[in-house]
Amino acid sequence: MLQSILGSPTKGTIMATVRVLIADDYAAIRTALTRALESEPDIEVVGEASDGYAAVRLAERLRPEVVLMDVNMPGLNGIEATRRITQEDSGVKVIGLSVHCLEFFARQMLDAGARAYLLKDGDIDELIEVIEAVRKGQTYVSSAVVDSGGGRSRLKMPRRIVNRG
Q1: Measured torsion, CA atoms of residues 107, 104, 74, 126, in degrees rounded to the nearest 10
Q2: Residue 91 exposed, middle or buried by CB count within 10 Å (0-12, 13-18, 19+)
Q3: β-pair partners for 43
Q4: Where are the domains of the chain?
Q5: Over the range 6-44, which residues count as b (16 or more CB within 10 Å of their CB) and which as e?
Q6: Looking at residue 104, what is its pLDDT?
Q7: Alpha-carbon span 51 to 100, nearest angstrom
Q8: Which of 114, 130, 112, 113 is nearest to 122 (CA)?
Q9: What CATH class has 2-163?
Q10: Which of 19, 59, 87, 153 has the fewest CB atoms within 10 Å distance of its CB?
Q11: In the chain, where do the E strands start and end?
C-alpha cells in the first residue's frame, strides 16, 4: 500500500544513510528492530534506549536523524521524551510506535512533535518506507488508528504519507 503512495525508488539512486535511535522498554523489541533495520543498506542503528530519559540523552549525544519511540515506557514516557527531543533539535524526526490503536495516543505523539505514528503489529517494510518518508518531511498515521469510542478516527490527518508544511 505505501509503495503505491511513495512510488518505487529509482534504480541507481543513492540514498544517504539514515541514523536511527530505537527507544523501547522491551529488549526483545529493540533487538528485533535493530536486526531488521541493520539488514537495510541505507539504515544505521546508532543506539538503543530502554526508557524516555535514556532516549533524550542519547538523542542529544548521538544526533540521530530518526528516533523510533515507544509511547509507553517507564520513567519518562515516549510522549514527553518526544517533546523534549524535538524541542532540543527540531531536525530529529520521531516515529511513535505503539500497541495502542486509539486516536488519543496518536494525537498526543503528533502534538509532542512526532512525524508518524505506527502500530507495532505492522510489518517492517511499512516501517522502512515511513522512515524514508519522514526524512522527506512527510507525515504518516497508521490506518488502524481509531477514535476513543472504537469508531473511525477523527484525526484530520490522512492515513497515508502526506507532505507536511
Answers
A1: -60
A2: exposed
A3: 18
A4: 2-163
A5: beeeeeeeeeeebbbbbbbbeeebbeebbebbeebeebe
A6: 87
A7: 18
A8: 130
A9: alpha beta
A10: 87
A11: 18-23, 43-49, 66-70, 93-98, 116-119, 138-141, 162-163
Q: What is the pTM assigned to this prediction?
A: 0.82
Q: Among 14, 127, 119, which Cα is nearest to 66's? A: 127
Does the pLDDT value for residue 114 go beyond 50?
A: yes
Q: Quick one: what percent of the chain has pLDDT higher than 70?
A: 79
Q: What average pLDDT does the segment 21-43 reach?
A: 95
Four-point Cα dihedral 9, 14, 17, 23, nearest 10: 0
Question: Whose grid coordinates read 530518526?
Answer: 66
- What's the full length of the chain, in residues? 165
Distance CA 117, CA 16 (A): 23
33-41's contacts with Cβ under 8 Å and 24+ in sequence apart are 33/68, 33/127, 36/124, 36/127, 37/124, 37/127, 37/128, 40/128
DSSP-derived 3-state class of residue 147: coil
